[in-house]
Design a protein that fits this description.
- The chain is α+β, with helices and mostly antiparallel strands.
- It contains three helices and five strands.
- A five-stranded antiparallel β-sheet has the order 1-5-2-3-4.
- The longest helix is centred in the middle third of the chain and has 17 residues, at 55-71.
Amino acid sequence: MMDGIPKSKASLPNHRPKRCAPQSPDIAPGHGRDYSALLGAAHPGEHRDNGVHDHKMLRDIRWAVKAVNQSFGNRFTCLMQAMAGKTILNRRSVPNTLVLGAKISRVVETNYNEGMSAHAWLWAGGIILLGGEAREDFLPVTSYQSQ
């Protein structure tokens, strides 16, 4: 202590700052995580699951995902919600299909492209479980099936 002021830990000779999170040897710095293995088998376009399942269970899963999203201020994207629903269905061995779609927004008067948008939706039991309300203008690009 010097004049009543303690020395900071950073000024001590053997002090090293702690890392915020341990580095995983499996993930190289600067690279994103690869979730495609968790999604299921990839197929071009939209492959629908036409199987009939317990629709009450499907409604409960939809409600749970939407309730969690709402309780967090609607901050989860359509992909996050579809992946959460897919994980719940996979744990219950319910066949499902996550579909990724895209659209190009175009201003008709000027023929100017405003950009590309993406959307994800989840099929299960022959119905769109999550993301169906906004999917109409999107063209399916790829889908991931789980059995």
